[in-house]
Amino acid sequence: MRTEDAPLIRLEDYRPSDWLIDTFDLDISLHPTKTRVRSLLALQPNPAGRPGAPLVLDGDELTLKALALEGAPLDAAAYAASPQGLTIHAPPQRAFTLTIDTEIDPSANTKLMGLYRSSGVYCTQCEADGFRRISYFLDRPDVMSVYTVRLEAEKAQAPVLLSNGNLVAAAELPGGERHFAVWHDPHPKPAYLFALVGGALDHVRQDYVTAEGRKVELAVYVEPGKAGRAGWALDSLERCMRWDERVFGRNYDLDVFNVVAVSDFNMGAMENKGLNIFNDKYVLADPQTATDGDYASIEAIIAHEYFHNWTGNRITCRDWFQLCLKEGLTVFRDQEFSSDERSRPVKRIADVRTLRSTQFSEDAGPLAHPVRPRAYKEINNFYTPTVYEKGAEIIRMLKALIGDGAFKRGMDLYFERCDGTAATIEDFLACFSEASGRDLSHFARWYEQAGTPTLVASGQYDGAAKRYTLELAQSTPPTPGQSEKEPMVLPIRLGLVGSQGDLPLKTGSRAYSGDGLVILDRASLSITFEDLPEAPIPSLLREFSAPARLELDLSDGELIRQFAQDSDSFNRWQALQSVATRALTTTGRAKAERSALSVTARALGEALDTFLRRDGLADPAFAAQVLRLPAPADIAREIGRDVDPDAVFGAHRALSVAIGAALLPRLPGLREALSSQRAFSPDAASAGRRALRNELLGLMALAAPAEGAALCEAQFASADNLTDRLAALAAMTLVPGEAREALIGRFAELYSGEPLVLDKWLMAQALIPESGTLERVKRLMQHPAFSLGNPNRVRGLIGGFAANLTQFNRLDGAGYGFIADIVVALDRANPQVASRLLGSFKSWRMLEPVRRRLAQDALGLVARTPGLSRDVSDIAERTLA
Ligand code: BES
Ligand code: ZN
Fold it and tell me: How many Å lie between the centroid of ligand 2 and the Cα of residue 331?
């Protein structure tokens, strides 16, 4: 079905289901190609639905084998069945049962939605609407049922049989070849949270007792032979469970909690009740095969999916427009967990980098949409940085706005009042209104209005009156479907930085709510601060208190002073980023202005040198963030129009080289001081030292290629962990030549048989900013380590190339053509992976005219392909609109 033919689903058309399903008994007999599914639905009319309505069940590529109403086969005239649905025309207007038999082929399921096989393991992915590929059902999140699931399989093929809830029975079947297991989940849930797993898997396990005293068996299941890599995930699980008890007062509610890692998975992980299924990339870790970044992601994603047990599962979404109700809130919760486990400022910096690079860029392009969209054609295309990351920022702002105490009371009220329901954003906000006694209707605009607000600030110091006046103004650019924008509620944390640190804030302004927080809820505002002995430097949006672009005209000198003196770590980091961003946007716009760059490079080099000398070793993780410039793509977005990616990249490279050169004398000594004699440990402090050390290695490779390359080789040879080896490879990719190719070859040899590590190897090569990269990527597609059928392989190699600013945006259009061809080829097998890849074109409108035209042509080629999935045609059409 083409998108034009696909119905537009609108929030305003929501109406409750006509039918409810109280209990749901599933009996599934697993077979590689002929899996039999028997469903027993206990239905009743929904008092909130339309009386006398037919029963319309969802399906997708299903084959009906048998159908019975209260045990009696139904007359052919009484129903209509197709692969897409099953309708009972005139069902009894009372409670009744329906038995439905379907047969499905998990081996033929390349979409990885519904029931499929991954390396021989049966597994499921049902969110958002994949359950209808298993059986006919009311596949919508506001229909919640109590599930009992009986699984049967050949014992040799699937010795492990798992589903949601608690195990209630398991036994061998007569003959001894087959066995079964029965799982019961007492918590009513929507179909998207159903899961099953069947296969030969190893596991690690651990007992856990909740704060409320419930004994829980935690287990992590992995491919045979990989149990040695499951420990970090299990450890993270235990830590995040304790944290949720302590910080949110949330206890776990079943006797088992299972996590299963599979190697073919469209997304990162899925929060199925009591049976989380993970992309193995986010479970498996040991020092030889996972980087520090992987350890951190595993910890965060284990926590994210676990936290969904309350924010998502116990309280689910009424409809998919409310997706941010569970995703934004749960991202906020996982970010807070990681902040508490690691370094809060460093985590905030990393999250803001992600927010800007993914969400701000989405907001600035044709795919911009509100955190709560009003209409969609394909819901899978709305699991976006806007719903997730901006959704989390809204929660963070809410907390700032009403304060920690009211936020906690609001959360508690939400958990109490909405438990067991399918809720809306309105239900959620009502709890915080009540808890805080505040009207949140204006704040709620964050859910409705798309686009990144710009905050323009300027200050004036009156020395005679010792008074400082701050002018603040906001505006939001138009986005698709929203040409007029209203002012938002922006919580602005601020300080006034003087020569001896923060100056006291004295003001009578009503917008100032104390504790360094100003609320800007109008288009503009002026605030006067009194009794200031000197002209301050304004430090605005401390901790990045609102997801806005800040325009504040400070000189490089002032920003560098702010870097040295601000008490807010985030804004210290931001100050140097701002210096670099200004120089890079100026130079990236017009190559002629390179001189501006060398002045900035000198100033930045000096500031960094002083910083590294004084306290670079005090907090290496922070120092690594300070050294890392904004990415070229961020600069391109700041420039915003007629972008020449080569010019942006050139400016970025020149500044990096200059900074590296300025720091060169200090780099070897610093690297030495940061090296560790101790055995590898993934803790945040050790990871921080590696991060800084490797940041310095990258700078050396750029500023002094010959020495840098030698260092890369030495580090590669002596490293005892993947982080350092991969950093050596990545730095080496910046130095063309024989030595680089040799190192690439050595890496592949060392890690042959380690697909997850080779994904990184593929990506490192796909990111090489040289004209030969496209040919290299095409060659690598023939490498035995690559397969178009596996999402992780595709994201590594093809996704890596699509993120290569200069090579994806080649002036001859070959980069666009390549990605477009792959999207079309991939779409036939896996529409979700294809449509995510097509998202790489989201910034095409900001390109200079030649590339813009070529990108548009490639998009048009995709859009005109016959037989496209709804996923891909939806993205193609909205991107072109
Ligand atoms: N519920 C999602 C998984 C999901 C995503 C299902 C899209 C269907 C479509 C899960 O909780 C999730 O958000 N996973 C993220 C990782 C998370 C840490 C942000 C993912 O898979 O990328
Ligand atoms: Zn989630």
Answer: 7
Nearest atom within ligand 1 for CA of residue 127: 8
In a mutational test of the pocket of ligand 1, which residue from 270, 277, 298 has the highest number of ligand atoms less than 8 Å from its CB? 270
Report which protein residue has its CA nearest ligand 1's atom 3: 270
Task: Of 625, 51, 742, give the one whose Cα is nearest residue 351.
Answer: 625
**What confidence tens digit (pLDDT) does each residue in 162-218 have?**
999 999 999 999 999 999 999 999 999 999 999 999 999 999 999 999 999 999 999
| Spatial separation of the C-alpha atoms in residues 735 and 808, rounded to whole Å | 20
CA of 270 to the centre of ligand 1 (A): 6
Residue 99 has a CB neighbour count (10 Å cut-off) of 19
Ligand 1 is surrounded, with C-beta below 6 A, by 127-128, 267-271, 300-301, 304-305, 308, 327, 331, 380, 383, 388
Q: Tell me which residues have their CB within 5 A of the ion that is ligand 2.
A: 327, 330
- Separation of CA 655 and ligand 1 centre (Å): 37
**Nearest-CA neighbor of 792 among 33, 282, 184?**
282
- Return the residue whose CA atom lies nearest to atom 7 of ligand 1: 383
Q: What's residue 596's pLDDT? A: 78
pLDDT tens-place string over residues 51-70: 999 999 999 999 999 999 99
CA distance 223 to 358: 32
Per-residue model confidence as pLDDT tens digits over 819-863: 999 999 999 999 999 999 999 999 999 999 999 999 999 999 999
Number of H-type helices and E-type strands within the chain: 30, 32
Measuring from atom 17 of ligand 1, which residue has the nearest CA? 301
Q: What pLDDT does 616 receive?
A: 84
- Pocket test of ligand 1: the residue of 280, 332, 355, 383 to mutate, having most ligand atoms within 8 Å of its CB, is 383
The Cα-based distances of 125 to 132, 214, 794 in angstroms read 11, 29, 19
Domain 454-553 falls under CATH 3.90.740.10: no
What pLDDT, on a 0 to 100 scale, did the predictor assign at position 595? 77
Please give the pLDDT value at position 592. Answer: 60
Ligand 1 atom with the smallest distance to the CA of 297 is 18
As a whole number, the mean pLDDT across the chain is 97
Mean pLDDT to the nearest integer, 143-159: 98
Superfamily of domain 1-200: tricorn interacting facor f3 domain (2.60.40.1730)
Catalytic sites, residue numbers? 305
CATH of 315-447, one of 2.40.128.20, 1.10.390.10, 3.40.50.2000, 3.40.1080.10: 1.10.390.10
Sequence ranges of the domains in the chain: 1-200, 315-447, 454-553, 752-880
Q: How far does residue 127's CA lie from ligand 2's centre (Å)?
A: 10
pLDDT exceeds cutoff 60 at 303: yes
* C-alpha of residue 629 to centroid of ligand 2, in Å: 30
Determine the average pLDDT of the residues in 233-241: 99
Quote the CA–CA distance of 802 and 817 in Å, as a whole number: 11
Superfamily for 752-880?
Peptidase M1, alanyl aminopeptidase, C-terminal domain (1.25.50.10)
Give percent of the chain above pLDDT 90: 98
The residue length of the chain stands at 881
User: How do residues 439-474 score in pLDDT, each as one tens digit?
Assistant: 999 999 999 999 999 999 999 999 999 999 999 999
Counting atoms of ligand 1 from 1, which one is nearest the CA of 304?
18
Q: Which ligand does the CA of 354 lie closest to?
A: 1
Residue 28 has pLDDT above 90, yes or no: yes
**Given this model, what pLDDT does residue 3 score?**
52
The whole-angstrom separation of Cα 526 and Cα 528 is 7
- pLDDT bucket at 263, cuts 50 / 70 / 90: very high
Among 51, 130, 137, 52, smallest CA distance to 98 is for 137
| Cβ-based neighbours of 132, under 8 Å, separated by 6 or more | 58, 59, 60, 62, 114, 139, 191
Closest ligand to residue 327's CA: 2
